[in-house]
């Protein structure tokens, strides 16, 4: 984590590349769309599904705050009354700021409320993202082995099963690596540096130092209740994130098995990893349309669904996050400066 300001005078090249990618995705999505068919899809939508989907969306964010409480337990016992607003502020900032700077905003927000150093809070967010990664891998694994695509998609189905085996192997490898890194740190770092050394001595040295810094800065819950809390809350976080996707499909008259919503969610998770404009505009939509095309859903209806799913995940948390930011009297512009000062104070 750096102490750089969140805003710079020169245009951010990564931001410009992201905007270009988003523009390209939007062009590819809309170039052959029949807008009358899109209007018909929206007209036929059952809007009653929006309310439970919205409730579940905020339940998912609340469960993220619960998991964050378990992850911070080795550092300090924190209040959900502080964790939940800071979570909403962080995701609001991720929607509006480039380069996922919402994680820094989220760490700063909670650190100020709970009196914890931003670096320590940020370390817990690294672990938070690892929990998301493991859960998504599990969702991906279940999806690949259980999903049933329509007739004519047998080759894609076979590819998904193959992907399931690859994902399962990757899942086991990552778990084994992190276990060794945590309990046999010196041994694991030596193995990594020896493997990388023939390619680049500098890279090997840097990777070793990074791994030591990473594992020493993270305090993992060790109690049974803490580990169980993290595991259960992680599963519930993603269950309540996937369920709204199913509700959105139903609102457009599509009654697909739960594995279809899991399949779409996996595509959306990978979409937000691609450089894009703030809000993941374009990349998010093209990922959703691509996933829906596997179920032979027309482009117009698929794009309509993508727009609604994106709006459901973007506008509510952004509005509430901005309110929490205003209520807490926090300025995003000042966070980079405050963080720099804190880094200078820390040993």
UniProtKB/TrEMBL annotation:
Alphabetical UniProt keywords: Cell membrane, Membrane, Transmembrane, Transmembrane helix
Subcellular location(s) per record: Cell membrane
Keyword Transmembrane: yes
Pfam families (UniProt xref): LPG_synthase_TM
Domain of life the protein comes from: Bacteria
GO CC term (a single one): plasma membrane
Transmembrane segments: 15-33, 45-63, 120-147, 159-181, 224-243, 255-274, 305-326
Lipid bilayer topology: Multi-pass membrane protein
The protein's name in its UniProt record: Flippase-like domain-containing protein
Organism: Geomonas terrae
Phylogenetic classification of the source organism: Bacteria, Pseudomonadati, Thermodesulfobacteriota, Desulfuromonadia, Geobacterales
């Amino acid at each position: 984590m750096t102490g750089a300001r969140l805003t710079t005078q020169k245009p951010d090249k990564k931001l410009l590349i992201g905007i270009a990618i988003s523009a390209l995705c939007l062009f590819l999505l809309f170039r052959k769309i029949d807008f009358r068919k899109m209007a018909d899809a929206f007209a036929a939508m059952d809007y009653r599904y929006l309310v439970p989907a919205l409730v579940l969306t905020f339940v998912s964010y609340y469960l993220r705050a619960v998991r964050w409480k378990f992850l911070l337990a080795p550092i300090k016992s924190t209040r959900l009354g502080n964790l939940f607003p800071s979570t909403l502020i962080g995701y609001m900032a991720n929607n509006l700021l480039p380069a996922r700077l919402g994680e820094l905003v989220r760490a700063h927000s909670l650190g100020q409320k709970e009196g914890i150093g931003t670096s320590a809070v940020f370390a817990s967010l690294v672990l938070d993202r690892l929990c998301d990664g493991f859960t998504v891998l599990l969702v991906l694994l279940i999806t690949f082995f259980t999903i049933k695509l329509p007739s004519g998609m047998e080759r894609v189905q076979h590819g998904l099963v193959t992907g399931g085996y690859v994902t399962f192997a990757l899942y086991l490898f990552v778990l084994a690596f992190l276990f060794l890194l945590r309990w046999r740190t010196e041994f694991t770092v030596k193995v990594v540096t020896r493997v990388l050394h023939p390619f680049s001595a500098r890279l090997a040295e840097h990777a070793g130092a990074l791994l030591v810094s990473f594992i020493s800065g993270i305090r993992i819950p060790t109690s049974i209740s803490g580990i169980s809390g993290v595991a259960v809350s992680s599963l519930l976080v993603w269950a309540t994130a996937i369920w709204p996707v199913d509700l959105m499909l139903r609102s457009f008259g599509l009654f697909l098995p739960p594995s279809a919503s899991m399949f779409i969610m996996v595509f959306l998770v990978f979409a937000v990893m691609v450089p894009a404009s703030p809000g993941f505009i374009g990349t998010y939509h093209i990922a959703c349309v691509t996933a829906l095309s596997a179920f032979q859903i027309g482009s117009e209806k698929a794009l309509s669904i993508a727009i609604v799913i994106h709006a459901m995940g973007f506008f509510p948390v952004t509005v509430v996050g901005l309110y929490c930011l205003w209520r807490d009297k926090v300025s995003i512009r000042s966070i980079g400066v405050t963080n720099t000062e804190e880094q200078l104070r820390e040993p």
